[in-house]
Amino acid sequence: MYDYYLGGSHNFAADRDAAEQVIAVAPNVRQVARANRAFLHRAVRFMTQAGITQFLDIGSGIPTAGNVHDIAAETQPHARVVYADIDPIAVAHSVELLRDNPHAAAIRADLRYPDAILSHYGVRDLLDLTRPVGLLLVSMLHFLPDEQCYPAVATLRDTLAPGSLLAISHVATEATTRDAETQVAAIYQRTNAPTAVSRTLQQISAFFGDFHLEEPGVVWVDHWPHPTEQSAADPRDIPIYAGLGRKISA
Q1: Gap between the Cα atoms of 60 and 106, Å rounded
Q2: Which residues are 169's β-sheet partners?
């Protein structure tokens, strides 16, 4: 569905049908997806400029326009990337797309079981977890309830080496209506991501734990790290908060 919102070609009839139902409820969802993808690009560039050479992208879907490994390679030609997703079809297509790329891999994994992700041979073969990692949790935590996502993210934070960077984007309660949220959630209940919930700025900031938030903190997605040329006149038109945190110590 996300690939469809972005105008990609790696999607199927069922994806397009569900995505069109969401568009009927939230007509700006394509704009939201593009803003979220642009944040991903800016976050990856920030990370590579900070010296990060390895990335773990959880909830990646099918690699689509502006892949993490492509963006990272702009300044870190040998950057290594592991994509992780719960959808077996997305992973199968990702494996095929990355077949000839020795610096990138895709694994099937579930954020609810972070230890399984961290111990997966696909992660261990490509990433050195004793060194800083760029962890990407972009537009995916709102698909899990509190009792699953907060402990999972805490486990990932605890495992990362000092110097690691964590990027998060998430649907904002402050910019969504209860009616629209309920309708969108009902659509996602028929997919493999049955939970779809918004969270407040405070609740989203809590995912960073004791990580140091890079300036300007957790802000509207197209205002990180500063307003972009495409920023909406009213930031709430793009109802996504985003931020990036750094692990200072073990």
Answers
A1: 9
A2: 138, 242
Q: How far apart are CA 230 and CA 122, in angstroms?
A: 37
Cα within 13 Å of Cα(186), Cβ side: 8
Q: Where are the alpha helices (DSSP H) in 58-144?
A: 68-73, 88-97, 114-119, 121-126
- In eight-state DSSP terms, residue 172 is B
CB 172 within 8 A of CB 200: yes
- Segments in the chain below pLDDT 70: 1-2, 5-10, 26-27, 63-65, 175-195, 230-233, 235-236, 250
In this structure, the number of other CB atoms found within 10 A of the CB of residue 30 comes to 16
Main-chain phi, psi angles of 74, to 5 degrees: -60, -40
Report pLDDT digits (tens) over 90-103.
899 889 989 999 99
Distance CA 170, CA 97 (A): 27
Rounded to the nearest 10 degrees, what angle do helices 29-49 and 13-25 cross at? 110
Give the pLDDT score at 91: 92
* Core vs surface per residue 68-94: b (16+ CB within 10 A) or e: bbbbbbeebeebbbbbbbbbeebbebb
DSSP, residue by residue, 4-58: HHTT-S---HHHHHHHHHHHHH-TTHHHHHHHHHHHHHHHHHHHHHTT--EEEEE
Cβ count near 26 (within 10 Å):
19
The predicted structure's pLDDT at residue 189: 54
pLDDT at 66: 76
pLDDT for 109: 95
Residue entry with tokens 């070609």: 9
